[in-house]
TrEMBL record:
Entry GO terms, CC: cytosol; nucleus
Keywords: Hydrolase, Protease
Any one of the GO BP annotations: protein deubiquitination
Name of the featured protein: Putative ubiquitin specific protease 12
Amino acid sequence: MEALVTVRRLAAVCTMGANASALEKEIGPEQFPVNEHYFGLVNFGNTCYCNSVLQALYFCRPFREKVLAYKVQPRKKESLLTCLSDLFNSIATQKKKVGVIPPKKFISRLRKENELFDNYMQQDAHEFLNYLLNTIADLLQEEKKQEKQNGKLQNGSIESEEGDKPDLTWVHEIFQGTLTNETRCLNCEAVSSKDEDFLDLSVDVEQNTSITHCLRGFSNTETLCSEYKYYCEQCRSKQEAQKRMRVKKLPMILALHLKRFKYMDQLHRYTKLSYRVVFPLELRLFNTSGDATNPDRMYDLVAVVVHCGSGPNRGHYITIVKSHGFWLLFDDDIVEVGKEQQNN
């Protein structure tokens, strides 16, 4: 889950390079989870946007398990996914429980593959998350396509089936949901709907609000009138209509993006909306369609990516994650025990 919120820093800071054992002591040997590792990531020049998202994804258990499983498959040529699986495997197989790892190979590959990230400027964590998930999905689909083609060649067939849809990958199985855009003609009452898949939901924020309120705003009914009238197929003319967005298929893991960076016409630039947004530790989506699958699914908060700073081109990203019942704050190479109250 991704959210941009203001967070209070703890007074005690554990410098992982010098005092890695301090985190172990604070958690306690009896409470420290078996086979778990808490490692900070080295910042290679404004790569906090990347480190924060990687930490959130590492503690997303279904995603971590799939990436680690990819590591043991027959070796493939280097890609963003092979570099990610190497990084996750390096963390998961450390002899020490805490420490620092430099994600050098991953950052190098990222900069080679996308010029947007090939610099030392601050980048947007949400853009990086989208790029990473879509790139991994594309890689997996291409591998599946190659496997099918190789199988057809072995069977003496080289014809490809036209109109073949790309296979859904484990990225889609974990993060993909479906929205349905419903439009109702106010003249004949006919309802048309169009489905759209998503890997994350971007919602607007307002002053003194909550995640629930943001989601309600996302699905508010909008009236189409005047020059924005809707062309109704039944009436065969433009008519006033009501439009609303609903969630038709709930994803296994719900990633929410709070749209804190807003373009201000009077300033001719983007500015940050530093509003307080309260979000619960458990969330049930109420803005579902009538034919939604598993509409009562309950989501538990597992990670928050936080932007600290006054604007989109400055500041710093950190991550708060929930692991085995307690909260941890990851700030590049620093890892410290957090508090539940920090998430408000």
